[in-house]
Amino acid sequence: MTQPLLEVCHLKKAFRLHLVDGRTIEPFTDISFQVGKGELFLISGKSGMGKTSILKCIYRSYLTTSGDIWYDSLLFGRVNMATASEEVVMKLREHELAFCSQFLKVLPRVPAVDVTAEPLVRRGMERSAARAEAEQWLRRLGIEESRWRASPMTFSGGEQQRLNLARAFIAHPRFLLLDEPTASLDALSKSIVLEMMSEARTAGVTILTVSHDTASMERIADQMCWLIV
Question: Is the pTM higher than 0.90?
């Protein structure tokens, strides 16, 4: 059996609620799964089960409480994302990983085309070439050309979600983490995003996605993990 790209072992995350008597909540306490290279892996379950927190632990936006997250990287070999140094994590984010949140966080007054092009510029691509590629993704995702030079802060929720997806896919990552990628999208936009995910997987990208839209995602997923209480 080939080594998986990702191996999550007995993952636990606890949050201390400092404003609520310091009590602790544990959305998940023993999560284990493997994601093969080039697979599309779906995590689903009820709200509040910690699905997004799992993605954030893998991307290292959150520190784990316990457990291991083994990632088979090109840069460093097998890395435990739960304990890796900040330098290693930042290098992996720059060259191999991409995370698409449900919520857009950008600097004010930066045009949408530059927000989308940013991952390519960070990797050294000339800005005009990065913008040209960004425009292709914005066009494919139905963002009107008249909006490309506007701030994404003026966009609707669905437009912001599509911009987030464009910024994630443009990076051509080795491992792509998607948090509710079809939320807030109309039927046409949803079909485009599902097509993009299938194309990326065919091109060798490994995708781990969290979604309540199991009816759509199950059609393209290779594996599924359903979180239960």
Answer: yes
